[in-house]
Amino acid sequence: MKRLAAVFLGALVAAVAMAQSADMKPFDLNMDRVTVNKFGGKFGQGQTFFVPSVNLVVSVHGSVWAQKGGAQAHAKFHVAGLDKELMRGLAMKAQQDFVAKMRAAGYKVLTYDDLKDDPAVAGKELDKDDETWGFPIRRSNVPYASILVAPTAAQQFNNPVQGPAWLWKGLAKDRDLVVLVPEITYTVPQMYAQTSSGYAVDRAGVAQNPAMKLVGAAIWSVNPKGGTPNILVQEHGMRLAAESAGTITQISEDHTTFSSEWKRASGDYVMTIDPKLFSDGVLRVAFAINSMVVAEVQKANK
Asked: 3-class SS at 270?
């Protein structure tokens, strides 16, 4: 018996962007998804800290395939509206909130502005912007490519593979301080394969959702002895950063029928962010992570 193929795109769009959002609601961080690691010391043990940057990582384009038997579906997307003013502003707000909470807890906190004239800081190599997206690109979150955003262009350091805090190990030793670099990763939109089989029919499709998700976070650290304790936050799949961060629009679609048993659908989409919804989603997650980090620093110094 021959099996027929059926393909579809955009079968499930969970929500559309609202015209405006309510006041930003706190994000409920799941502490079961948080791990504090001790590599050469307790995380945050010290009284003087250096925060060179708070980095945001946000998906900007990607590609998803689905296949079941002879049915294939392929969708590509890119995100519109992530301009420099918006993104730098969000990273700066996340940094300011973190520094303010650390200082309010009684710790001495130095920032890039405090040490930018120090030769150990001023001479650091900067990462290069991607010509298309205007920020450095990361491609580790397959099938997504993401931008890496620092609060200012001057804080866009070319970080080593050991993590952004490792860049400052000499400074940590020389000044007897602890370096902390929070880095938070988001994906938007959500695109995922859907497949099924019925009587004599295979189906494949790619569904889209304009939600924004916290994929994970790492709070990188290096202490005066060269230890690198850190905090890792795992993906929060069901606790969304934003139920909707904008709107998804299909800009092209193509259907190819090779035979009744072999069909392919492909489409291109653009996710246009709503600045208010997107900003609220980014910041409520960042603020919750900042509070958690301060609490862990206080535990280490009791």
From this structure: strand
Task: Give the domain range for residue 172.
Answer: 4-20+33-300
pLDDT single digits (tens) 233-263: 999 988 999 999 999 999 998 878 777 677 7
Q: CA of 188: how far to CAs of 59, 212, 242, 266, in Å?
A: 6, 5, 9, 20
Is residue 295, in this structure, part of any structural domain at all? yes
Question: pTM score, two decimals?
Answer: 0.89
Domain count within the chain: 1
CA pair distance 72, 95, nearest whole angstrom: 44
Residue 200, burial from CB neighbour count under 10 angstroms (0-12, 13-18, 19+): exposed
Give the closest residue to 147 by CA, choosing from 83, 237, 205, 236: 83
d(CA 228, CA 296): 15
- Burial class of residue 254, CB neighbours in 10 A (0-12, 13-18, 19+): exposed
Query: At 114, is the pLDDT very low, low, confident or very high (cuts 50, 70, 90)?
Result: very high
Look at residue 39 and tell me if it is in a domain.
Answer: yes
Q: Is the pLDDT of residue 20 over 60?
A: no
**pLDDT beyond 70 at 6:** no
